[in-house]
Amino acid sequence: MHLTVRRLTSLLAATVVSAGLISAVPGAPGVADARSCSNSGTGVPIPIINKLFPRGGSPIGPQKQMPAYDHGGTKTIGWVTGPKSRNHTFGRFGISGTDVGVAWDNGRGQTLMAFGDTFGNCLTPDQQWRNNVLLRSNDRNLADGLSLSGRGYAREMFNAIGVDGVEKTAIPTAGISLGGKQYVNYMSVRAWGPPSRWYTNYSAIAVSNNNGHSWYTPPNTIRVNAGITIPVPADWPSFQAGDAKFQQSAYAKGGGAESGWVYQYGTPNGRFGAAYVARFRPGDILNRSRYQYWNGRAWVGNPDAARAIVRGPVTELSVSWSPYLNRYVMLDSPRGVLLRTAAHPQGPWSPARRVAPASLELYAPMMLPDSPALRGTGPELYFNASRWEDYNVLLVRTTIRR
To answer: Hey, what's the signal peptide range on this chain (predicted)?
Structure first.
């Protein structure tokens, strides 16, 4: 570990950063080079090349036209982010390139979306790079694309030290609304490693009481990626070997017989590990002593006992209950976008069905809460997906089968 518990605690306790869409500041985008920045310019905070190109390749360049795909029930609908998107995110939010797009309902019918490493104006010394940003949408009809709400330079949700080998960035991996508050699970990335591998310090939960305009991280939600178990006081970050299995996450509210539970799916850092699952009551999201973990036979209180529910490699996940299917749906993207279903949160999960080919170069498929399949009104499932070459997020629709 490069960060002590004391340093982690003091850093995170001070992390209350505005995420509101405020008025543009000096240096915000105007007439400029509106492209996703490669890692060749001065002041680029992260070497994104290994993150984005698992098989090698060139640094990302300007955003291109949306890749057209319509086959087997899956169709690309339109760019969500980037200068070529219908949302014109470079001019409106200072976003020329970003990824992830974790999406959830804020409890009042609005969709919140948390994005990862974000670039703005590539001609500025720092390329207007941010660790993460939050955008909002009131669009309930996704058939013609996803429209974003608001305007103004998108600020970071929460910061990071920004030093390679210490803490390079902080990336959202899951989001959920419970009891009128917003919760985002994120990973603190220590360094980018070989393609499709990175190394985390910890994962943690950031909380917002004001619909995502500001965030704070309770230190007791930190899962240190230490691979060992050390007893610590209840209000300290956790040192448990099993916490390494929950460095990246997906949240799903229980449906059917599991209503009243929230499920947290976890994977280790990178795109190589298996998937695990924990559950908790909505009011206990910040009290990890009340979490239960699936050990292959029963729900138990020890994260070290968690057993894989899907064998690796499992990449960035999203999981939701589908009233249309009366089953849980899981998306990830190790070789194209894969879809699995299960009658219960812990499985057994069906064999993966490829719903988008590897040739589209999509990753981090994040389901949209207003999908008919998740509302119980139809078979259409919409998801955000990031694209390697363009380093931006597009909307994809697939049809799920009963």
So the answer is: 1-19
